[in-house]
Amino acid sequence: MNEISILIGGKAGFGIDKSGNIIGRLLNKLGYRVFIYRDYPSIIRGGHTFSIIRASSSRIAAHLDKVDLVIALNQETLGLHKDRLKKECFYIFDSEQVKPEAAGICGIGIPLIKYLKEENAPEIMRNSCIIGAMTKAIGLDFDVLESILKKEFHKDPELNVKVARRGFDAGKELIKMDPLSREGLPLITGNEAVALGLIKGGLDAYISYPMTPSSPILHYLAEVAKDFSLEVIHPESEISVILMSLGFSYMGKKVAVGTSGGGFCLMTEGISFSGMAELPVVIVLGQRPGPSTGLPTYSSQTELHFALHSGQGEFVRFIVAPGDAEEAYYWSAISLNMSYKYQIPAIVITDKLLGESTFNFDMNDIQDIKKEASVMWDRKSPYKRYLLNENGVSPLAFAGDKDAIVKASSYEHDEFGITTEDPKQTMLMQEKRLRKEEFLMQDLEKLSAVKVYGNNNSEIALLCWGSNKGVCIEAAQKFGLKVVQPVVINPFPVKQFQEALSGVKKLICVESNATGQLARLIREYGFNTNETILKYDGRPFSVDGLGKALEEKIK
Amino acid sequence: MNQANLATYSQSTWCPGCGNFAILNAIKGALAELHADGLATEDVVLVSGIGCHAKIVDYINVNSFYSLHGRVVPAAEGIKLANPKLKVIGFAGDGDAYGEGIEHLIFAAKRNIDITMIIHNNRVYGLTTGQYTPTSPLGFRGRSTPQGTSELPINPLEVILASGASYLARGTSHGIELLKSIFKEAILHKGFSLVDVLQVCVTYFNMYEYYDKHVYELKDHNSQDYNQALNKIREWDYNKEAAIALGVFYKTDNPTFEERFLADKPGEVADKDSIIKELLKKSV
Asked: Taking the domain B20-282, which CATH number applies?
């Protein structure tokens, strides 16, 4: 087979996530391209959690509803997911947890606890044991798994291998996966890609208050802080996060923050302050279903307009919505660059699906990231923090410079930074700040702000944004359609978007929300969608699921 | 710009007789004396919130960050952590520091981060024209509480002492010399310092006479002793009739947040790209 989907499920706390990663790495090692979708409740122990590991000979960034193999660490997993199986009985189960009558007489039952006891291994190693059985089931040699286990487990690697061997020996082959003669690619989550992209963009400090689905960025950056000489801080609230970041920004440090909708709500006053005081900062906004607390560990695309309109007053902001790991890396770096070049807030919109799914990452697919230097004070005339000039970007100096006095302010201010309520001064300053957008727009013309995939001659195109990129490309392929994905959301790349739509007679907008937020946005620029396919149950589109919905729309 | 008296061209918009003038003059005096002692004025950053107090940053020709209401502390912390060499002095009103932003104050004290907070505590909202604040006495009749408040004030010094501050003092706007010497000491103190200034609002809560009658300067007080500090802080609870102590309540030497947090931070990393490549290689 040149493609496989494996579902592993159990209770939260069983180690499903780690197991999913090991299976992904195993298939990656064989040269397959891998995507892992994680589904888990907002619970630490108990509750059903599962991962779908999909591997294919071509690049993928979405899952399928149908799977080739189910690995069930408890009864519930079989009950919930047996219907996904393409072939009956293609499941492996813990024969001590799942009653045979419930499982039927087919499938591969492994007495995990019995083996663990015999090997004197802790219960968590059920995972390694059943992955051993899976390795046999998909027709692989044990030594591939052995090398992965040794790499993944720093504690007791030998015991994990031993336990896995027991599972392997007790299993039987159901499917034959042949190794592909090529190297695997790095496997990282979208959140890790954002973190690395920020570092690439020159990050000095990352400040964040934990909130799903963005906390893994905080964890990852805290872990690598020393390697990159970063300051990673977790303060008392999101309000503190954004204000602290503006303190860093005032000192010329490249700073980013990360949160989800609820935390973003608390940050909005600070974002507006960033716009007024021209203090650059990047905000990573990881969407999840709302309103309010909503479904904390699930995914949605409901904050496009919130990001666009967050904060009081009118100011320029840069907003991007990357669709996979490479885009997350690239556009996080670009966001930091643009934010500092134009002294504006930038927002990177992600979601649970992008942030917490695992993707292959190919550095060769990433375009050059030009380092943008901030405009510095020429030291000739007395320093004015808000000097009025042609492009609205005033040169920078920082506190500690003995020749400059640097005054930043949330009030309307004069060039020196002192409060003013003068009507003429107010207009000049407002125009100065807004003027930056025109120049930012010119920079964006040089970047691929709108992506086009699939059949360029098709008169039907799917319109998507963010994490729906992967699923749309694949579903469109099946029907020979075109896909249009604006990555830059603001300033909206009207020209590139228009070009992308050339020849399109029917535009079908695919979004993970209930109201069609991108469809609404493009209407502002005079573009219309003919159809919408909306999903708002917190679960991502699957390739087969979207395919079915498309059939209806294009017949 | 007049570096000699640190004034700017900004016209003062405080009411005649406002207690803020005393704070302005005391801080200017303190900065000038610190400058004479070798503190580079360019290494000072003033941060303010929103309210009458906050205009102070417009009136002093020194680096400044005019922040949001309630958000002086986190901005000051960010500036300090971005460049620990700086002396960061935050000004906030009582509504600003003890109301909207009190969590930041508690956490900054808990961290013992080396910044100084000067609270213009006039116990009334001035700029929004006379409402009660967290330190207004019980029964205070303001525009939002015309029948008088139904809640007791907090004792901010007690809260901040309990939170871990390493320097706590109180002054009034009717005693510039004391204020100046406290400001200087607080700025030089290593760790989180807070000065509660009983500042008088002549328009909405004129307490000049009351304070003059009740204040006294701390003598024979061991500011190193936590319990003595706590007792002195509790002597007046911002509500009842009692003697009001001025001076330094508490002063201790504890490790600061930045000492610990930045202890083993490496210098500039030259080749980040190759470290990124290494990390990616590990994830194959």
From this structure: 3.40.50.970
